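User: Show me a protein chain along with its predicted structure.
Assistant: Here is one chain, sequence first, then structure tokens.
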Amino acid sequence: MRKRTIAALSVVTVAGIWIAFSGGADRIDPIISASTTPSESQDFTISNMQNGTACLLTRSKRISFRSNGMQAESECDAVWPGLATARNWTQNEDGTVALTDMSGQAIVTLTIGDGVDYVAMEPSNAVLAVAAIN
């Protein structure tokens, strides 16, 4: 009888501790959380500050350690020549981002911006601003 009482008290104590420290329904389930991935795509607007045009870029799934696929609207050619053909977003070790076409030819190289996410670094005559859309 004494062993049963101690066993029952142990179960009640463990259950009480579990309930007290589990945090209830607000806790994140690590099993489910680990099996889901955040959306891999991110939309950006790219604006040409000289001619006042803008378009939408979408950085999509990761294709290598430093690169993501990307899509640019056809209207992006009005923002910068060849931008509509951009298919690769490559994050370089120095923090710059190269937007390249299918052959790997750089169209625009971006660097961290002041007040926007990125600004054009190359070509030097490109006055472009890139901002993430949340």
